[in-house]
Amino acid sequence: MPDGSSATGGLTAAGQANLRDWIGQGHTYVGLRNEGTRLARAAGLTSTTEKPKPADYLVIGSHLRVDVDHDSPVASGRPAEDFEFNNSDPILNPSTTGTNVLTYPTGDTFWANGYTVGADALKGTAAVVDEPTGAGRAVLFAFNPLFRAYNENGLHLVANALLYPAGQAGARRAPGTDAARASAAAAPVTADLGGGWRPITIEVAASDLPRTQAIVGRFTTAARASAKNGSAYVVIPNPQGLQADEHPFARDLVRALRDAKVPLRSVVG
After folding, report:
1. CA separation for the pair 138, 19 (Å, rounded)
2. What is the pLDDT along the chain (269 residues), one digit of tens a residue?
3. What does the angle CA 243 – CA 246 – CA 250 come to, to the nearest 5 degrees?
4. Most CB contacts within 10 A, which of 21, 128, 203, 264?
5. What's CA 166's distance to the chain center, in Å?
6. How many CA atoms lie within 13 A of 11 on its CB side?
7. Backbone angles phi, psi at 29, to 5 degrees
8. CB under 8 Å to 117, separation ≥6 — which residues?
9. How many angstroms separate the Cα of 170 from the Cα of each of 94, 175, 182?
10. What is the spatial distance between Cα 30 and Cα 137, in angstroms, rounded to a whole number?
11. Which of 178, 184, 142, 191 has its CA nearest to residue 42?
């Protein structure tokens, strides 16, 4: 299941039950990023939940070190310490019902290559999870391992998931939805503000928030605002996942803010 802006992948409750049954028969579901992991959660295939991102969180194309659990064949051929490419991906609390194949370190080995703000929120969370159901499984990627065919390790992990050996010892789990997975399915769904890409986030000084909101209001009424450590963050939903050069008003909005002499601390889109 590729990324998108639906929390259920368009499946009704009956469709989700059919998906669980299909996996239980020995098939593999591979879910990517927001829609891929959220559909699995809605269908009772995982106990992972999403961790809210801090207001100032900024990880927009960085490589981060991850620890590898070789108890799952998904990790076959990967080193004990690997890396993944994070592009403002969902943050997953670890599974209690499956194998957390890739997790971000909690200690001194946590490391990022690229510009990040608030990346410590990733410590101890999961990047890839292997969740058994019956004779099959759901393999969930918090990130997009196929992003522009950029990282060979992501391609390797997907290949492992698709070639997962049938009847793996100790891999079976009753096909019904247990309490941990039911609880995860019932958790509030994180608003998907970025579709397959990311929302537009404008950072200004907290004192400039009223002026910024007034200008943003000329373009959209859907913006959300928060503040942290002297900065204010205005987040504009981008459910179609449009990049800045495709967006209907992103560049005009930035121009209007500059014309009004609102100092911009950062603009991410």
Report:
1. 10
2. 888 778 888 999 999 999 999 999 999 999 999 999 999 999 999 999 999 999 899 998 999 999 999 999 999 999 999 999 999 899 999 999 999 999 999 999 999 998 899 999 999 999 999 999 999 999 999 999 998 888 899 999 999 999 998 766 445 566 667 899 999 999 988 776 666 678 899 999 999 999 999 999 999 999 999 999 999 999 999 888 888 889 999 999 999 999 999 999 999 88
3. 80
4. 128
5. 28
6. 21
7. -100, 130
8. 56, 57, 58, 59
9. 20, 14, 22
10. 9
11. 184
Which tokens in the block code for residue 169? 């010892």
Q: 3-state SS string over the chain? A: CCCCCCCCCCCCHHHHHHHHHHHHCCCEEEEEHHHHHHHHHHCCCCCCCECCCCCCCEEEEEEEEEEECCCCHHHCCCCCEEEEEEECCCCECCCCCCEEEEECCCCCCCCEECCEECHHHHCCCEEEEEEEEECEEEEEECCCCCHHHCCHHHHHHHHHHHCCCCCCCCCCECCCCCHHHHHHHHCCCCCCCCCCCCCEEEEEEHHHHHHHHHHHCCCCCCCEEEEECCEEEEEECCCCCCCCCCCCCHHHHHHHHHHCCCCCCEEEC
Token digits for 26?
């020995």
Extract the tokens encoding 7: 């929390």
Tokens coding 159? 């290949």
Query: Count of residues for the chain?
Result: 269
